[in-house]
Amino acid sequence: MTTTVGPPPGDVSIAVSGVSKVFTTKKGNVEALRDIELDVAAGEVVSIIGRSGCGKSTLLRIMAGLLGPTAGNVTINGQPLWRGGSVDSSVVQKLGVVFQDANLLPWFDVIDNIALPLKLRGVDKTTRRRRATELLDLVGLGGFAGSYPRELSGGMRQRVAIARALSRDPELLLMDEPFGALDALTRERMNLEVQRIVAATEATVVFVTHDIAEAVFLGDRVVQMTPRPGRIEETTDVHLARPRSMDVQTTPEFGTLVRHLRHSLEGEL
């Protein structure tokens, strides 16, 4: 088992430095994160796991510019994401975010949902529809441009959400349990899709999940967080060749990684 404290050699895409988060509630302060240090290399896929309430989603929202840290900062390719209490909008534009809920606009068809971030940036209609069509083909939904979200399955809606997140050619793709509400077979198919899309786009990805097997299947590294206040307990390398088929889950190497991570999490009880 190999445990590391940083990314493999290469340019750092995102650096989380000394990030802590404290929420103020009616019952007092709640320390969600404490002194998080994490570097992710360009082109790397990092999975984040941990028990419910450990701060995984809080950390991802801070990395996405949606929630300000109490202390510390995040840099994207060397540029600070947060400046005081405000987010730098020019840095946010380098990010794509996908949540568990696809959050598609029901009155827009698929092509317009994908093109929405480009429309908000003032990109002309011809250009944004051409880009949306390319992405629709990339996620395997080329025949559904005129469909509406209500006409799609859960997995298809998540593909649209991923295409929308990629529409601005993000340098970093942040995914917060995007397949948590899907059935097991659809989830497996979506894991294969994410792997294929990442290979095609050479994206840097941070992927939050409760599922240890999913974390190992997708990740180059798996970051384990402690119970609240969330800290990084350990970072484990995943030395499995790519591309990975679902059959990799039957190999001794995969099983060893999953057992190690499961036992590590159980040791927190």
TrEMBL record:
<dbReference type="InterPro" id="IPR027417">
    <property type="entry name" value="P-loop_NTPase"/>
</dbReference>
<keyword id="KW-0547">Nucleotide-binding</keyword>
<dbReference type="Pfam" id="PF00005">
    <property type="entry name" value="ABC_tran"/>
</dbReference>
<feature type="domain" description="ABC transporter">
    <location>
        <begin position="14"/>
        <end position="252"/>
    </location>
</feature>
<keyword id="KW-0813">Transport</keyword>
<dbReference type="InterPro" id="IPR050166">
    <property type="entry name" value="ABC_transporter_ATP-bind"/>
</dbReference>
<dbReference type="InterPro" id="IPR017871">
    <property type="entry name" value="ABC_transporter-like_CS"/>
</dbReference>
<dbReference type="GO" id="GO:0005524">
    <property type="term" value="F:ATP binding"/>
</dbReference>
<protein>
    <submittedName>
        <fullName>ABC transporter ATP-binding protein</fullName>
    </submittedName>
</protein>
<keyword id="KW-0067">ATP-binding</keyword>
<dbReference type="InterPro" id="IPR003439">
    <property type="entry name" value="ABC_transporter-like_ATP-bd"/>
</dbReference>
<dbReference type="InterPro" id="IPR003593">
    <property type="entry name" value="AAA+_ATPase"/>
</dbReference>
